[in-house]
Amino acid sequence: MKKSIRIGAGLGFYGDAWEPVLASIEKGGVQYIASDHLAELTLAILQKDLQRDVSLGYARDVVPMLLYLWPAMAQRKVRFICNAGGLNPAGAAAAVRAAFSARGWAARVAVVTGDEVLAQLDGLAPAHMFNGAPFDAVRQRMVFANAYLGARPVVSALQQGADIVITGRVADAALFLAPLVHAFDWNLGDEHPASQAELDRLAQGLAVGHLLECSGQGSGGNFGSLQAWKDIPDLAHIGYPIAEVSEDGSALITKAPGTGGRINFDTVRQQLLYEVHDPHAYVSPDVVLDLSTVHLEDLGQDRVSLTGATGHPRPAQLKVVGGYRDGFKAEVTWGFSWPDAHDKALAAVAMVKAQLADKAVPHEALFVEFPGLNSAHGTLAPLPDAGALAELNEVWVRLVLRTQDKKAADGFGRLFPWMALSGPAYTCGFQGLNNSSELLGIWPARMDREAVESQIRVELLQT
Question: Which of 45, 115, 300, 439 could form a disulfide with 326 if both were Cys (CB 3.0 to 4.6 A apart)?
């Protein structure tokens, strides 16, 4: 009989729902949960937290989530892996340990550090990964830089007996690959190059991680197939996907019984192609996955088999995501009601533009959109004809000012209140009059993996 393990999807982003994770633990027979909290945007959010308080910089939902899940995890010996450490994995681990200790709970918490590479970037000066822009353009404004680590440090933490593994910027799918490498002793190519069969197993594991990394999106959530999305049952109680993976890498994608959502050929293939630029070369720190050879078979009853992934040797460089100060923004939303709601909104925009010009407010752009009309698809969304526009019940307009001048951003909201009595009639109220914030731009780059991996540390802590 083939040895297999079951891995459940945790969060797909900072702020995702916890209840489906508990369902996988209680009813899904999982041995591991892997939880992805970090988008590139999330690191920018965490940087702002860190600027306010040096003890922060991590995804703060990790503490209440683990308090919620731990009783069921402890009872069933389920192990939890997450990258919720963000820019401060040690701080996240300390917060979890303090919360557990306050309740008298004992857990072995491992913290993975070493993904932070800001100090190294100045000497390397890496060009922008996609447009080739020189690093000098942002050198003085950089505030964080983190390399995408692979599965190796998580495997090390599991080998040391960790119940909970908290990392910083580990690649999303690598969180799921790690327990497979640990459980089946797969070769990651650290000591000797992986054979083709070993690369194919790693590729299968990476494909599994890619299918599970987005929580409910892998089980019918966010399903975009025209009318078929209406047939996804009970999204209010969706079950996150679970992978039962065998030692040879073959996998069965399913979910906990009695949960909502759907696992079928269409929902799985949609997630398989999510955020994939080149299906022949889905690059990760551990293996390059060729998705063109993957075979999905719908077995019915919320079960899809995954086989056939092809692997190529891992890259010599790791991706780095950096963040730099990129000015400020301020935004205001304002509504108008029938009659002539759209014309009133256009008149209000013209008044704002006139004030910006009259006061010589420094800014690079004023972004204007109409929620409910064109905010989802922008210029691709055809507006109704003039007659239909004239009869709209209400129209909202969102204006976003982008500027390098903080005072200009802070003062943007003051351009609006007087128009409540002196502008177009029948307004629906302002939102965001005091809503200004700093912008952080993203700088993707590459750096040699040896420079990163030499500084990785795995520390096992006991609560």
Answer: 439
